[in-house]
Amino acid sequence: MTIGNSPVDTGARQYLRRFSRYVMACACGLLIAGSVAVASPGTACACSCVSSETPEEAVSYASGVFVARATDKVSDGFTDTYEFEVSQVFKGDVGSTTTVGTLANGNGCGTSYQVGDEYLLFVSRPYQVDAAWEGYACGPYTGVPFDIRSVTEKVYGPPHPPREAAPTAEISWQTRMTAGIPTPVLAVAGVVLVGLIGWSILVFRRRWSRGTHQR
Q: What is the dihedral of CA 136, 106, 174, 180, to 10 degrees?
């Protein structure tokens, strides 16, 4: 008995067709993402720090200002992500634990921190990193040395402990798992996986079509 034109067969074909298009769209998206990831290191530029006119102005630009100790670090080769235990907050809604991302190897004004050391951090909202904050090599700068801590207290007042209700951030397990694998490799692996899924669907559709015509 032929069921090639039955509602069940038609619905299955429509489902497979939509799913195939979805898989191909995902493959294209991953391919583009992989290309961007591969190209990103080549677009890094030299760092040029802007000088402020006064110390007060220099410490006022950051989105977040707090004292914290670096407790952990992971890196994917392009960005470094640090986890910090926060003790004092001058500016920003910062929880007791937070993360700071920075471009690796000093690219694009990226910086580095030593795990175990305490820092007075001047950070911005994340732009090129997947973290709660983004850190740069350019700190408060006027061209003339000044006492950054005392000027910070003058501008923001005495620090306060991190609020219990403030958002906290930790290095995620996904970041830890993929830290040792370069981003381009992950992108290519994703494209290959989606390609295999798409190929399997095409094979299934052909066998389905042959089976319905032979009945």
A: -160
